[in-house]
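As the next step, I needed to go through one protein, both as residues and as discrete backbone shape codes, included below for the reader:
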Amino acid sequence: SLIIDANPELLNVNALGNVDEIGDRLQISNNAKITEVSVFDDLEYLGNDVMIQYNASLLALPLLYSLDSIFGNVIIEGNDSLTSVKGLDSIRWITYGLQITNNHKLASLEGLQNLHSIGDGILGAGLEINNNDLLTNFSGFGPLEYVGSYIIIQDNDALVSLSEFISFDTIRTNFHLWNNPNLTDISALQHVRHIDGSAWLLYNTSLPDLSGLNGLNTIGGDLFLLANDHLESLQGLENLHTIGNHFGITRHLNLHDFTGLNSLTTIQGDLRISLNDSLNNLHGLIHLREMDQGQILITSNPFLHSLSGLNNVDPTTFSYLQLDSSSVLSDCAIESICQYLAMGGVSLIEVNATGCNSADEVIAACLVDVSDIDERDIILSPNPANNYITIRGIDLEEAKVQFIDLLGRKRDEWSQNGMMLDISRFSPGIYYLLVSMEQKQFVLPVIKK
């Protein structure tokens, strides 16, 4: 290794101009007065990391023009005067990770235009670009053809656009886009089809939508959206069909609806929707069907009035329901929720509007006649029922009674007045009695316990 560390009066390293091989790492760190290290342009072999860290006066990186590969990490960190990364122009492959962090005057990534690959398949080898205060875009970077692990872009105060820095279709583990307050354009992600790990988009307060993720089909882990204050819809996720773990969307001031999620069919974990001050409907989730025993938690959304949009979720695929502290939420009696509660599903339902203030209120709403026909002369008892239910008040010699499940399938049929109907063989849930007479039809909800 060649380590130049903690030399407070060192101004340059000109004496090292003939070095052409370093067996392990090159480290230049904690040298407060050094301004340039341009003498390494004859270096033809480097066996490990390049670490350029905490050199307060450093204006430029080593000129590594004779190298096309780094067999380790490249770490450029805490160089307060560094304005560019020129000097790395010949580098095509970094076999471990690239970290560009805490360089407060860095305004450009030009110098990385030939870099094609980071990580070489090594678990943990990723890309981090964090806390570079003057960096406005990724122009001059890549495009990368491969990153072996995570991508983290965080705390870059001036960053507006990612530019087109990647050309591959799969992010191998996690993608984190955190606290970039001026970021408005993520179109650089247009080639991404799969994120094998989690996608976390947090505190990007100027991001208007998710355009740029239009090609994304699957996320293997979580999708977590938090406090992206200008986000008004989820446009850009139109092709996303599977989330491999939890989906959380929290603390959005201007998000009105879930437009953009119309292809989402599967969440293999929890669905958590909370503290979204402008959210008024869930219609974008209308094709969601499976949740792999995850939980549904919808809390503190002050303008959400209905759960319509969750109608098609299979009630056997979620394991817990929490609906609370949404002051105008009154319409919770949709098919999936009615069926879940009828099967005895565990729930906490409270501090919402009338109609959705308790599980009993929701079940009562589920039993309201859906046909808008006067059925006051028809009596069903008991309802809910375990094994038998009796229907009285009509002449069944002139009527047909069908027992229908929530998918519209006929499960049984009767035609005797006053008969005690045997429903013991059916699974718990919501069903309907469809009573057909010459001039009328009656639809009567039944809960099988």
Remarks:
- The chain has two helices and 33 strands.
